[in-house]
Prior knowledge:
Layout: H1 3-6, H2 18-26, H3 34-44, E1 50-59, E2 62-71, E3 80-85, H4 92-104, E4 114-118, H5 123-128, H6 150-159, E5 166-174, H7 177-191, E6 205-209, H8 215-225, E7 239-240, E8 243-244, E9 250-253, H9 255-258, E10 269-275, H10 284-307
Parallel strand pairs: 3-4, 3-5, 5-10, 6-9
Antiparallel strand pairs: 1-2, 2-4, 6-10, 7-8
Helix pairs in contact: 4-10, 8-10
Pfam family, one: AstE_AspA_cat
Keywords: Hydrolase, Metal-binding, Zinc
Cofactor: Zn(2+)
Amino acid sequence: MNEQRFYPIGTPGQPWGDAERAEWLSRQVRHRSYADEVEARILALATRFQVDTYGEVSYQGEHFALHAVRVGHWRDDLPYMLVTGGVHGYETSGVHGALQFLETRAADYAERVNLLCVPCISPWAYERIHRWNGEAVDPNRSFKTPSAARESAALMRLLAPIQARFIMHIDLHETTDTDETEYRPALSARDGKPFEPDVIPDGFYLVDDADKPQPAFQQAIIAAVSQVTHIAPADDQGNIIGSPVVSPGVIEYAFKQLGLCAGVTDAPYTTTTEVYPDSSRATPEQCNAAQVAAVCAAIEFALAAASKGQSG
């Protein structure tokens, strides 16, 4: 397939330079408001939880404050757990699922967990409904040192003093039809590589860490989410988005090697959720509820493991 046919920016076979990145940035349009739809809800939580501003990112004169929410009165004898969303800003239920969890369920764990929630890691991309940040960098491939994405670097700085203390981290994502129509073609064009079409799975699935898999943890989350929405089946090759299905609704990636957000801590229990919002069988409300169910199941599993003195 000729690359020029599947993405309008760049020269086939050649990675983008500054000119192509600038052209890409000029095409990005603001579709929604981080301040109104996300930040206002985070700041409203300050009456119940501790809201911290851990950084700021700016693109083309626009400034976005980065917020984290600490649930409960943290104590050294409680387990540390992390919930993140919006590392890909366009994945709506990752952000709104995290917010819904904070608004409706987080208080249930205030006396049991040192819980940190970062609902929207990439606010510029939230407004543009895009995967990348304003420099055409994927934050979810940038949790490495040094980081190529300022959003990822800011979260890494926030977590640095306590990142070894976490026992659980759940990172909330979506897989959308636009992964296939926009974001994967853009990635191939940006990197000067051919675009190879794939199939978007219909349903919820999880990504486990290939370097330290926790199948029981993943299946506990799958079981909880299956009460809310359907689980993605494997394709005809036994894969989901090109990776072998290792158990129902679960594939594996090497988190730290790929620089994924889910590998930002040393937690033994880690996962990435993937909701499918474009399914004819799911509503936006179901997608958000699926994220909340996943977070609660992850916390409950990790709490039970901690009470038994297990670390994986």
